[in-house]
Amino acid sequence: MRSPALRHVLTHLITPLLMCLGMGLAYMGAFVHPEPNHLPVAVVGAGPKAKVFAQTIKDTAGDKLDVRTVPTRTEAVDLLKARTVTGAYVPSARTPELLVAGAASDMGATAVEKVFTPVAAEEGLPLKVTDVAEPVADDPTGQGLFFLLIAVSIGSYASVAALGAAGGTLPMRIRALLALGVSAVVGSIGALLAGPVFHLAHHDLAGVWGMAWLYSAGILLIGVGLHTFLKRWTTLTMMVLFVMLNFTSSGGLFRPELQNGFFGTLHAFWNGAGFVEGARSLLYFGSDGLSRNVWTLVVWLLAGLAVTAIAAAYERAKAAQAPVSAPTASVAVPESPAELAEEAEEETEETVGV
What we know:
Layout: H1 4-12, H2 14-31, E1 39-44, H3 48-61, E2 65-70, H4 73-81, E3 87-90, E4 97-100, H5 106-122, E5 128-131, H6 144-166, H7 172-197, H8 205-230, H9 234-244, H10 246-249, H11 261-267, H12 271-284, H13 290-321, H14 337-351
Parallel strand pairs: 1-2, 1-3, 4-5
Antiparallel strand pairs: 3-4
């Protein structure tokens, strides 16, 4: 290519085009065609008749459902509140009942209703649907926590671009401290949105802030550390890790039982799932499973600390290798126009996705 200017522009178009492709693959792959994938459900009843009924449903559904039997309605409710099953069918000669937990997944509740409504209809009976864990009235679909995740995530990875582009000359320990401080602010904004502004959290707002801080701090520290090595490619990497793979596997819209195995596997350990499921545990399910989700966020925070420590060691080693002449050691050397232009390009590249 003869024109350097044209080659320069085309090179810098790589990042937004990769973002376009990645977002399309991730979001459409995760959300466009949801269907049950080993969706766990229960049939309430004891004895051979209940077992035969459950096996009939399983044989009809194939791999779409995992069906178990439980002897009592109370045990079925406990399984729903532990989020072990997505729905529980209570057979009846008059009014069969479907138990769901809407706060765990509105889409999951809808999916099991679609499964069992025809089952009741075959016997000419209306299906009664009972929600044993309803979301708050201010968040009727229970999806507000997913959008809270998006807000906190954007505040976090966008701050990485700012710290990388504007704070690159600061020592790593200062950048790491700034990352921790910014994450506290991002967590506070998240708590403000979840509490006083949109009333998603009617209690335990301090716990929501704590999880938002842990989540944000992990992202910021990972990003600040990666910037040392990736430079202008940091934002693209952050979007892959904490948007494309993160939002889609969080369970905020579709739990893993309604997704393919790839996103379902990520849900088990990705930090967005830790935040969303942890907030659900805290706000709707009596903190059941909360410790596991908090530990997920802690592990990501520790990973961020490890990345920043490696980056700090690399920067120290690189500075030690740089030759410095004695007469000019204490004099700041002005950057060349080419270096300044390169830094400006990197800043533009980093903020293109923000």
